[in-house]
Design a protein that fits this description.
The protein is mainly alpha-helical. Helices cover 59% and strands 8% of the residues. It has a two-stranded antiparallel ribbon with strand order 1-2. The termini are far apart.
Length: 118
């Protein structure tokens, strides 16, 4: 029995001789992966925030330009004098002043394009 126990102990020592080193290496890999994942999550959040801010700034710029063009084109011309339109996009819900009908021209957003119709 003692011989068999001694044989098993020697076998375990050979199998698990590098166990501490293998554990240390694997632990480093796990911690490194966790840190990289956390960094990527922070980066994604910051990128999303920056894109939304940029998009908001561009939407304001587009609305300003459309307002100027609208005022230069329609204000003071009688039946076409109406409030300036605003651009809509899938992130924001800016609505146009009025939609056109057969009797009045207007702007309408279709998909990602703005179309003028009579």
């Amino acid at each position: 029995m003692d011989v068999q126990l001694q044989k098993y102990n020697e076998q375990l020592k050979l199998e698990f001789k590098d166990a501490h080193e293998k554990y240390r290496r694997q632990h480093i890999k796990v911690k490194t992966t966790q840190a990289a994942t956390d960094d990527l999550a922070k980066y994604a959040k910051a990128l999303d925030s920056a894109i939304m801010k940029f998009h908001s700034m561009k939407m304001e710029e587009i609305n300003r330009i459309i307002g100027e063009l609208w005022r230069n084109t329609y204000v003071g011309t009688g039946k076409h004098s109406k409030k300036s339109p605003n651009v809509r996009c899938r992130y924001y819900s800016h609505s146009f002043g009025e939609r056109g009908s057969k009797s009045q021209p207007g702007l309408q957003l279709q998909g990602n394009t703005i179309s003028v119709h009579d």
